[in-house]
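User: I want to check something. If I give you two sequences, will you return the structure for each one separately, not as a complex?

Assistant: Yes, each is folded on its own. Here is the first sequence with its structure:
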Amino acid sequence: MEKSCRPAGRRDAVETRTADPSDRASLEEDDTVELRVPDRERKLLHKIDEALAPIERGTYGWCDETGEAIGSARLIAWPTATLTVAAQQRREHRKRFTG
């Protein structure tokens, strides 16, 4: 991914040159998006690593809770699934009632 080449004091410089609040708001939004993208990429890489771990262990496609096969339809729809549909529903039900 490309990193921004903007100087650290860019916002201060823009605010002194840009009197229009809409322009400033747009530039601030650009800055916010630039800060969020690396965080999203880091989280995505973490999720990819988590998804690869069961493959490496030889447990991909098997429910973490019951040990049953998850089923190809579920894995096609949700490749990172670690629970069968029934196990996922039980977990969500427990979470709903226990907080």
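And separately, the second sequence with its own structure:
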Amino acid sequence: TLWRARNPNFDFPLLLKMPFLDPGGDVSVILGFEAEELILKRLSGPHVPRFAASGSLAKVPYIAMEFVAGIGLAELTNRAPQPPDEVTRIGAEIAKALAALHRQKVVHLDLKPENIILAERGAVLLDFGLARHAELPDLLGEESS
């Protein structure tokens, strides 16, 4: 589940992401949540939400990150058609965001309109639960082998 929050220790609005942990349920939910936490902690720049804090899986699992204001690409696609120059601009913004991510040794692996916010600062990529970092173990890949 997702919750908007504020904390006086941060100068930006927060989004709390809390997984639904079902005992005996699909372990990939937990692994994806752990992967997202590990990767978000290492990312920086305008194309990803800022990491704020996280809670232990054993106690209260959560990831607190920056809430990014803007329009979701999924919402924008429902307003089709868009002028060609706007489509070109959006495509260029997404390419910049992906290039910035790749420079940080991360591949997203779940890029879709629902995981892209078009903010004033450019395209912001969300949901790193399936992402891979070149210097971190592939938790989901290890589980499936």
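Because they were folded independently, the notes below concern the second chain alone. The mean pLDDT is 92. Residues 2-144 form a domain with the Transferase(Phosphotransferase); domain 1 fold (CATH 1.10.510.10).
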